[in-house]
Amino acid sequence: MAAKIKKGDTVVVLTGRDKGKSGEVIQILTSDNKALVRGINMVRRHQKQTQAQEAGIVAKEAPIHMSNLALADPKDGKATRVGFKVQDDGTKVRVARRSGDLIDG
């Protein structure tokens, strides 16, 4: 099945402490069905000192389950479901169900 949410998409969080916030997908973890979203589900971790990094407490994104995310509608930025449409030239594109706008190209 084709992916409804891809890297680089803007998504809206549906549940949890970051409900209503939106951000860009940084990475998709297909094996766990989770995604990393910029600025969402931030956690603080203790970092050991290395040659490249200083020691201290760093904030970074934790993975969030895909079922708690919805694609942001390109028209108004609100959460929308994703559909698929085959165009006349044979390419399959994602479509926002809320407004009917194309998400890809």
TrEMBL record:
NCBIfam families: rplX_bact
Gene Ontology CC annotations of this record: ribonucleoprotein complex; ribosome
One GO-annotated biological process of the protein: translation
Family: Belongs to the universal ribosomal protein uL24 family.
SMART domains: KOW (SM00739)
Domain KOW: start-end pairs: 4-31
Gene3D superfamilies in UniProt: 2.30.30.30
GO molecular function: rRNA binding; structural constituent of ribosome
Gene that encodes the chain: rplX
Function text: One of two assembly initiator proteins, it binds directly to the 5'-end of the 23S rRNA, where it nucleates assembly of the 50S subunit. One of the proteins that surrounds the polypeptide exit tunnel on the outside of the subunit.
Subunit structure: Part of the 50S ribosomal subunit.
Pfam families on file: KOW (PF00467), ribosomal_L24 (PF17136)
Keywords: Ribonucleoprotein, Ribosomal protein, RNA-binding, rRNA-binding
Protein name, UniProt field: Large ribosomal subunit protein uL24
InterPro entries in the record: KOW (IPR005824), Rib_uL2_dom2 (IPR014722), Ribosomal_uL24 (IPR003256), Ribosomal_uL24_C (IPR057264), Ribosomal_uL24_CS (IPR005825), Ribosomal_uL24_KOW (IPR041988), Translation_prot_SH3-like_sf (IPR008991)
Organism of provenance: Roseibium marinum
